[in-house]
Amino acid sequence: MAPSAMSPEDSSPSTPSRPKILIPEKVSPDGLALLSPHFEIHQPKSLSASDLLAIIPSYHALIIRSETKVTAEVLSAAKNLKVVARAGVGVDNVDVDAATQNGIIVVNSPSGNIVAAAEHTIALLMAVARNVPAGDRSLRNGGWERSKLVGTEVGGKTLAIIGLGKVGLKVARMGVGLGMKVIAMDPYASPEIAASASVSLVGTLSELLPKADFLTIHTPLIASTLDMISTAELSTMKNTAKILNVARGGVYNESALLEALNNGTIAGAGLDVFTSEPPLPDSAAASLCRHPKVVATPHLGASTVEAQENVSIDVCSQVLTILRGGLPTSAVNAPLILPEEYRKLQPFVRLIEKMGSLYTQHYSTKQKAEAGGLVGGKTFDLIYEGELAGISNTRPLFAALVKGLTSSISDSGGRDVNIVNAPLIARQKGIRINETHNSASQDLVYASLVTLKASGGEQAISGYVSGKSIYISRLDRFSANFVPEGTLIVLHNYDEPGKIGGVGGILGKHGINVKFMSVAALENGSGTGTATPVDEERGENEALMILGVKGVVGKEVERELQMEEGILDVSVVRL
Ligand SMILES: NC(=O)c1ccc[n+]([C@@H]2O[C@H](COP(=O)([O-])OP(=O)(O)OC[C@H]3O[C@@H](n4cnc5c(N)ncnc54)[C@H](O)[C@@H]3O)[C@@H](O)[C@H]2O)c1
Ligand SMILES: O=C(O)[C@H](O)COP(=O)(O)O
Q: Which intervals hold domain D-isomer specific 2-hydroxyacid dehydrogenase NAD-binding (predicted)?
């Protein structure tokens, strides 16, 4: 469709020379009022994917919600586009990497609809507890069914939350206000922040699920949360339990949920989000929407007047700034370093980001995660040695660490962290970072060395830069030497003959190719005190085996590796 094919009422009067903004979804007029005096705004009532592709080249800004798919194809055709603005949080419908490659800034509103999402969760909680929609439906059909629709009180019941971030924490506070006992599982949350909201943190799902009268998930949809609740997990819950989803379709397995409702494993569900929106006609999601034990809404979590005002003003003011040549406040793909610092700091920014991400993923295996506080609420020491100790502006390095620590646990992949907002994001998660410049290091083998340590434990990672390449030289109590890139399997094992054969056999069986292997021995003088229990006699023989692999390393592979004789612990890390 050419631009002229849009109906006249879809477009505001135009001044040809003004930059053009395309808004294919319903966005609150409050923010648009900031833009309309300066720009030509087009709001087509419906726009197909091919229409979008055809007209995008003439636009300078694109403002969207969750329905418009901004693909790599659209972005490479968008010759004049400076910004894609998401009036909301999730950017799962935008190819952010393609935007970055095309020099297009992606902005969002990280907090504008948090209250709305939390309140919608409570609305679904009360609706499923008290059969509100069923009562309403029955009355409309001329019924007066009282005994059939007896509900349960939520006061005194246990509300279990998975994901104690911005929305989860608000839901927790509201639950406490309703007289509920609130427990939560979030390995990366701050224990202090949880305690301040009267939430008891538990370490594992298996501890959380059997206690839940109501279960609600508020995590992003990422590799570790896809199908987080499926048949096995549902079977450990009370058969009176009811579950809620105002996060993203896919955190509950929809087929498993349907089966659990049909066979009485659990009692009900309140659902706002689905794996495909709207649900495909013959899908499990479509059956869930029609199920008598389900209350369903069409992704209304953020649909309040107030939230839409907030997100609209948030993103429209950023569009205004960007089209006038300024810097936005919430860029999802903002660079960590300014061009003038790029050559000197870029390898270290990359190294420290990878060290942070390695930390979060390596230490989050069940064996090592404590009840909360794996990342959130933790104090870290970031120690610069050698030439790096002389650098005074370490803001990009600090930001790189915050980005690395949070990248594997957020739906933006940490891309929204920049040098301006990194201290704020760290504060929100209760992360404290002490930077130390140690220029007096003796016997340093590398020109510069960076060490990341979590205080109060043995968790430590060191790394260095050589040319343009980055390396990890220490992981835990082990001297290592490997490149922190791609998919890595880190095996903590007894250094005994036959290990490589066994591990290779398992990987080969699953079609996983090994690209490199590195063995890390205990550092000189390292004792055997460790988070993982080791055999006293074999303790001196511990080692780490680090495998760089190609192929999908699923949970089954991890389980098989974990069962292998002499393997103490396994972590799969994607860097
Ligand atoms: N339905 C709606 O309209 C609507 C509105 C707003 C937000 N959302 C969605 O709600 C979700 C939460 O948003 P938010 O702003 O609170 O995000 P957030 O990033 O502030 O919080 C997410 C939390 O999940 C935790 N987490 C990550 N991986 C985990 C895991 N494997 N196990 C347990 N916890 C884990 C993180 O530590 C973090 O505390 C997002 O998916 C967002 O897109 C939906
Ligand atoms: O990611 C979000 O902000 C929410 O899921 C809301 O999406 P929406 O703007 O399409 O309502």
A: 122-301
